[in-house]
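Lab notebook page, bench 4
Experiment: in silico fold of construct C2
Operator: M.H.
Input chain length: 348 residues
Purpose: comparison with the prior construct
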Amino acid sequence: MKRNIVFLSVLTVLLMPVSLFAGGSKNRLYVYNWSYYTPPSVIEKFEKEFSVRVILDEYASNEEMYTKLKAGGAGYDLVFPSQDYVSIMIRQGMFEKVNHSLIPNLKNIDPAVLVKTSYDSKMEFSVPYYWGAAGILVNTARVPNFEKSWSIFGRTDLRGRMTMLDDMREVMGDALVHLGFSVNSKNPREIEAAKNLINNEWKPNLTKFDAEAFGKGYANGEFWVVQGYPEVVYEEIMDNEQMMKDTVFFIPSQGGPAYIDSMCILKGSKNLEMAHKFINFIHRPEIYAEFCDFFGFPATVNVPARQHLEGPTWYQPEDIAHTELKYDLDDALGMYNDAWFNSIRAGN
């Protein structure tokens, strides 16, 4: 049985929308996290140890999360945004301050990761959860010869067998890096060039932009090349020994966008104490290692957890060393939105 099926069966009750519950109970913790990102065993252990019920909702993109919260999706205690949205949400006063005295396990966080978090390097409002990157997964039985480059999406012979994420910063970032620019470029000419590359060379070969079902599509053979997160694909093909052998994951040597997802306590949380306990619990070395083992992650954030890892990892920290974090684009975000929503994704 695939882990995500176990996950759904264990947490069926927990995945009810927050609106169905009356907020404020001290024996409930409302968590809003990415899909495929919270191992059930970790949730179960936390619930048992602290006599609390975790109510978990999930989202597929930062934009989805942010839009829901700004539209009044209140009631959550913890959320897990990526670095660019951490920066935006700090600026907009959406988080409570972190009480370091309640999280002694902050000492386990790799200082090298904090160096990257210029938006909150002292962890005043955010605590790093995971540092990683999307890349490209290829079914080598179907595509035996390929260059480890973003240019693979320009291959017309693979038309209709490829997908890229439905994620503006990821896809635009890939195109910018491929053209030799920064994933955080604010240069109108560079953004225009990235838009044209995607529209003219990549998009015609894609089946779709997909941030949710690309793993299942890859597993059933519909897609042969996908841009995405390795844990999502490997989760879907874990029971298929041959496909596991045939699948290659790589991040092109040109680099690409990276992310640091963080745990943040939302302003107005009704269970501040339990939210701090959850963050501290996650950063116990053995718990963090359990989280990483479940998804095949390297322990990129928690240093002592690296000694507790038991399973294989789909990539190593050094594999993402050449990637670039996506930062808050400030006023330049409008140019990206225009390129993405009014051109690349227009009519789709």
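Observations: Residues 63 and 293 are 28 Å apart (CA to CA). The first strand starts at residue 28 and ends at 34.
Next step: discuss at group meeting.
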